[in-house]
Amino acid sequence: MTTLGYKLMAEEHAPRALVRNLVAAEQAGFEFSAISDHFSPWVEEQGHASFAWSVLGAMAQATSRIGLMTAVTCPIMRYHPAIIAQAAATLAILSEDRFTLGLGAGERLNEHVVGEGWPGVGERHARMGEALEIINGLLTGELSNYRGRYLQLDHARLFDRPERKPPVIFAVGGPEAARLAAHKADGMIATEPKPELVEAYREAGGNGPCYAEVSLCFAASEKEAMETAHRYSRWALTGWPVMAELPSVEAFGAATAHVQPEMMAAQVPCGPDPSRHLERLETFRKAGFDHLILSQIGPDQQGFLDFFRGTLAPALR
């Protein structure tokens, strides 16, 4: 059975709008939601980057049923993992156990702002492994001191900790990361419909949920949807090796100057035809992902939510 989630793009919407959109998503029948955690938008046109944890606190009080999740938070540079463990514990209590902590190794775009540089991919993965140990240990109450190569913890304790540890989900882009998720997390999340990611996770002993974020752009016409996707999401066409390394909206603007609206349709289902959106979602289901996070690009969230409730949800379920 597929569980359906709604993506809250904090780079595209102001904080109060994010809360309103989540309330509407709960009413539309989504089972959970996932919010991005950015210090900067990807491109200037998106225009927003509020503090996700403040918004999550408001969301916990504005809703009663829908699950909450970060997709994803980086706990290796801008945040110390102890702070993320404390934030996750607090959200779990405020939401009455509706919170899932999604973690990833991050991007230079958001993490360089604290002035400590941006390490290479090998060091980032090593830091991530240490961060997962710290966060899990604090959330279970089994760890108070830690001395890793990169991260330390000194006599730490979470005084407000939920009875049930919130699930920790790790973002993966390759089999090595999928195996890390199997060993040190409660599930995995990806953005590409690669069955080898799910296979690597399961073969390494992972038995938790497999999340996937799927970008869509519903609009009255295919042309309108392509133009909207181009305006707000052309950065995604640069690919992960570039996305992880560029430092600013100006850099992403330069890197995507060649991208045309028509190029977006090859990566994102665009327009009002439900068959295109359902076909894209089915590729993730066939790859083994059991939790799908639907990410509507652009400002027309209510139109998409109506489309979801009336057309997509009945077909998917």
Automatic annotation (TrEMBL):
Its EC number is 1.-.-.-. Residues 8-291 form the Luciferase-like domain. The keyword Oxidoreductase applies. Pfam families: Bac_luciferase. It comes from the Bacteria. InterPro entries: F420-G6PD/mer, F420_G6P_DH-rel, Luciferase-like_dom, Luciferase-like_sf. The keyword Oxidoreductase applies. It is an enzyme of class 1 (oxidoreductase). One of its GO terms (molecular function) is oxidoreductase activity. Keywords: Oxidoreductase. This is TIGR03557 family F420-dependent LLM class oxidoreductase. It comes from Belnapia arida.
